[in-house]
Design brief:
Blueprint: H1 3-31, H2 37-55, H3 57-62, H4 65-90, H5 94-101, H6 104-116, H7 122-138, H8 149-170, H9 179-199, H10 207-213, H11 216-241, H12 246-253, H13 256-267, H14 273-297, H15 310-313
Length: 330
């Protein structure tokens, strides 16, 4: 089979991952309440971790002490991302959540340019400004009001994702660590944080209490988040980057906010009003434009072993490849 046809075949499951991720905000909103955020996070990843440990046990045993510590520290940032995202989606619409978090696509190159002291092209800065303006309109809903607390939490999550991307790409301690083992240790560290928070009095329901209160629909939603939004998404990305280019995969995953907005409006009845609709378009145009400008500045695409760590393959996360685009699944 020709490489071009193989690449097109790889596009289908990757596009499905983008759609699944776009739906994850709606799924999380349906399963989680303000009182069950940490409990749901513990339950969600308790399903995922054993599978990752079994799949990557050889790689885990090969990790050095510094790699374990580095991945564990990255897991603390990952925990902050999940907490901000999950609390945020509880307090805002699924449409707003999916579009605001997409600002990571423009925040990351801006932050990287500051770290490297490299000037970004004017076209990128214009695209970033367009995205920020879009978010400002999006958060107004049907009228001009202050952004909701959930909107601000999602904005914080976008900033935290940017920090995570930069830390993943620049941390010397995780060089040589495979993507699967690195993800497993990070998730293990994050789950430890969630479990500690869930055990603190006054932070909400315990995982056991939340599990007892779940009905069949809640369990289906939780399994969807665990199996499809995390395991399926991660392994599809690993499969796809071996058969196509990281940038091509990243471009397809960049359609996530489109799916989030479409599903939020179609299934959740989100009604952003005319300011929100205009803002949605501006966010999508701005992030797409910014990504294309950043991609043109990046190195030529090349397929790579999915077990290479991001630090091995690129010291700059301008092109957010699947292994450096933030969270391993939504």
């Amino acid at each position: 089979m020709s490489p071009s046809r193989l690449g097109r075949l790889a596009d289908v499951p990757v596009l499905l991952v983008a759609a699944v991720w776009g739906s994850s905000y709606l799924a999380a909103k349906g399963v989680t309440t303000a009182d069950t955020v940490t409990a749901v996070l513990v339950l969600r990843f308790a399903v995922v971790l054993p599978v990752l440990v079994v799949a990557g046990r050889r790689r885990l045993r090969a990790l050095s002490g510094p790699q374990w510590r580095g991945a564990g520290m990255l897991g603390l940032i990952l925990a902050a991302i999940f907490l901000l995202e999950t609390y945020g989606v509880v307090h805002t619409s699924a449409t707003n959540a999916g579009l605001i978090i997409s600002l990571t696509m423009v925040f990351t190159p801006i932050a990287e340019s500051r770290v490297r002291r490299v000037r970004l092209p004017g076209a990128f800065m214009a695209a970033a400004g367009l995205s920020v303006l879009g978010v400002a309109l999006l958060t107004q809903g049907a009228g001009f009001t202050a952004p909701s607390g959930g909107d601000l939490l999602m904005l914080g999550a976008a900033v935290a994702r940017t920090v995570h991307v930069l830390a993943m790409a620049r941390a010397d301690s995780v060089r040589g660590a495979g993507a699967l083992s690195l993800t497993t240790v990070q998730l293990g560290s994050a789950v430890a944080v969630f479990a500690v928070l869930a055990a603190v009095p006054g932070t909400g329901a315990s995982p056991w209490a939340a599990a007892v209160d779940f009905d069949g629909g809640d369990w289906l939603g939780l399994l969807y988040l665990s199996v499809f939004c995390t395991l399926f998404a991660f392994f599809v990305q690993m499969w796809a980057v071996r058969r196509t280019s990281p940038s091509r995969v990243g471009l397809l995953l960049g359609t996530e906010p489109v799916w989030a907005a479409a599903l939020g409006i179609a299934l959740a009845g989100d009604r952003p009003g005319w300011p929100g609709l205009v803002g949605s378009v501006l966010v999508l145009v701005g992030t797409g434009w910014g990504r294309s400008v950043a991609d043109r500045r990046g190195e030529p695409d090349r397929a790579r072993d999915p077990e290479e760590s991001p630090a091995q393959t690129s010291r700059t996360p301008r092109r957010q490849t699947p292994e450096t685009s933030g969270t391993p699944g939504r």
